[in-house]
Amino acid sequence: MKRLKVMTIFGTRPEAIKMAPLVKQLQETEEIESILCVTAQHREMLDMVLDLFQLKPNYDLNIMQHGQTISDITVKVLKGLESILQEVKPDIVLVHGDTTTTFIGALAAFYQQIAVGHVEAGLRSGNIYSPYPEEMNRKLTGTLTSLHFAPTEGNYKNLIQEGIKEKNIFITGNTVIDALLQVVKKDYIFDNHLLNQIDYINKKVIVMTCHRRENWGEPMENIFQAIVEVVKKHRNAEVVFPVHLNPKIRSLAEKVMGGVEAIHLIEPLDYEPFANLLNRAHLILTDSGGIQEEAPALGKPILVLRTETERPEAVEAGTVKVVGVEKDIIIKEVDKLLLNSEHYLQMANAVNPYGDGMASKRIVTALKYYFGYIHTKPNNFKIESIEN
């Protein structure tokens, strides 16, 4: 048989992190010819991940422009991929998750009548405007997809409810766990000198990320004010906040939290140092989707700074709690984790529902099965088969 031609398309830092171990697995598979195309919806942050995992794209659309709108990205990706797909003629295009690159990559493949494989399929919040535009991106991508790689059984059930055929869904675990386990090191030394000086043993270090559009404005100000109150109440608490590059977020963070001794506003971190920072944290506050998957693998409680989550598995498992954006509620929930050791351990020791580091291998096996290179359907990932 001829080699299976698989084109992977991604464009943002989170996509790159989650797709990197899969691309490496594709490259190592004899039956597969792997082609990598990046849109560079993000540029510098994307390049950092490509360098970390030593990936060199075959095609680079380089669309990044400061201030670009969703419409700008849509037009440039759709037009840019047209000629590439016509030239390469892959057997299948793999896209990841829920970005504009993801949806438009799938749409461009559909226009060329090329099969689509959706990695991290089946996530749903139930609200098309939250997260925005990601929820609709993932739903639209799902309608264009031939092979759905669902991280969890819950994602699988979402797809079944939407009429996706069972034979086209594979439960794989999440590739982010594959990536995380490759980069976290016990003796890691940070380039940022401040992060090496923090007393992670005797201090209760809170790592926070906050950047989502739906939190801009008053919700984000509430979150930041809550953090100031937390460090005033708890003298043994320190907060590390890698501040997003968006000027609106940076100016608000400086206004509310700047100059507070126990709050460290630092520049955004590359994936490797950030993963190792998460590993040393006491607890994590975030509005990020990906961190809700990563932190359980590290045994860290997470408070989600959103009103809903499309990742309910960790909430059900007990390692994640959705606390919203109200100041008093955030303070109350952080207090419980800082003061109640039993509550803290209950969350920290909850089973990680998102993966065992084998998701990329399962996806490659599923591709070989679907295209007839092997005849045994791969086993689905099961939460019961792993321990935290």
UniProtKB/TrEMBL annotation:
<dbReference type="Pfam" id="PF02350">
    <property type="entry name" value="Epimerase_2"/>
</dbReference>
<dbReference type="GO" id="GO:0008761">
    <property type="term" value="F:UDP-N-acetylglucosamine 2-epimerase activity"/>
</dbReference>
<protein>
    <recommendedName>
        <fullName>UDP-N-acetylglucosamine 2-epimerase (non-hydrolyzing)</fullName>
        <ecNumber>5.1.3.14</ecNumber>
    </recommendedName>
</protein>
<comment type="similarity">
    <text>Belongs to the UDP-N-acetylglucosamine 2-epimerase family.</text>
</comment>
<dbReference type="InterPro" id="IPR003331">
    <property type="entry name" value="UDP_GlcNAc_Epimerase_2_dom"/>
</dbReference>
<keyword id="KW-0413">Isomerase</keyword>
<feature type="domain" description="UDP-N-acetylglucosamine 2-epimerase">
    <location>
        <begin position="24"/>
        <end position="368"/>
    </location>
</feature>
<dbReference type="InterPro" id="IPR029767">
    <property type="entry name" value="WecB-like"/>
</dbReference>
